[in-house]
Amino acid sequence: METDSRAGYQRPDKRWNRTLLGARLLRRLAAAVLLLYLAVCTAVTIAIIGPTLSNLQAFKARTVAKGPQRVIVVLVEFPDKKHSVSTETIRQIVFSGLNDFYQEASYGLVSVTGDIARKWYQTQTPLSKLDLQEWAYSENDMKLFEKEAIESADKEVNYRQYDFVILVAAGEVWPHAACYLAVLARDTGLRGIVVNEGSPLGTYAHELGHVLPSNYEPRQGCGLPDLYSYEASEKGRDPNIFVGPWDIMGASNPPRRFSAWSLMELGWITPEIINIGASVALPIVLQPIEGESGTRVLVLPLSETISYVVEVRRQIGYDKNLPSEGVLIYLVDLSKENGYGPVRVVDSHPETPALDDAPYTQGAFSANPLNDVHLAVSYADGVGYLLFSGDSNSASATNGNARTASGNLLSAEKNTLPEMPAFASSQIGDLRWYRRTS
Questions:
Q1: Domain that holds residue 343
Q2: Which of these, 6, 40, 121, 273, has the minimum number of CB atoms within 10 Å of its CB?
Q3: pTM as predicted
Q4: Are 223 and 211 in contact (CB under 8 A)?
């Protein structure tokens, strides 16, 4: 399976099915979350406003990409195109840069180890005879190159010892990934990626993301989909219109971390799932995904195929390259195909052309909601964010921002949203906790 295949989505992930928790557990969760908020001075308040809260449940993610990922790096040139980059340069990118990136992105669960071939091997077919250097490359030509590249090193490389192969090509061969590369020594084939000698670190990280073991069913557990636009790429336009710089499976350079959705699919992060109801507000402290503890992602199912995923991003580590920081909302639509926007950022500033300023910050209110579910950021202090769920049926605001004033969320227009309840210890454990007063 090539990374740019147009294979569509399969049935919705059963892990997102909603189940009811008992009132006793719900009360304990409410008390625990509130106490966590009161104990953490770095919390930031968000409000999710929606049409009684039906449950809060833990998402039991299965860690599937874990431990050392052994790669063999095979260097390949052509009869008419020799390499111009040293072996040591490639070694540093893979076993220093790529390893560092995945150690950070996976919270230390994954490392990149392995070997690099001792020399540059040569294919039989000249590069000039192959259509490999554009986004819309010839799949037949690419398969021929992959076959010749793997076979060129077969006598000196024991492919059985590795989980993945990285083919580094001289020239400007278009980078991509494959879930199956035919290897004579392996009946099951080998997952691999193709990059060229000029590819930067972010390209390696993006392509490896396509072949790591995952929970993502449409690719049958082989990595993540492309989160940029195939249509825009075909037309030569900016393809980063769905998630912008917020996931390396979209824009890959400079390298930035995976979004919370991708982290869930790789099994590296466990979200809380909130099923939105009417008249109840639920406080949850949401920590940045760059951290290694606390609740770092929320999933709000809207239907069997559509969900919101909410995260917090900070300019830390590899995310120092992010253009801004704050609360990000993703709209996940399982009916959309790979390359056609299965994951899209809900832009807090739709009036600007790019998604660089998409995060919600203090005082922001989400516009154009689905299922009458909104998000409002009503408190900001440090690295945590606190979220609410409540009723917005009395509000008609569908655009503009909101601000916090005297406990109320006020739209930028004339509409007044429901009053957000204040924290009160007497309400802990009461199922009516945080019910709006108006």
A1: 14-60+270-427
A2: 6
A3: 0.77
A4: yes
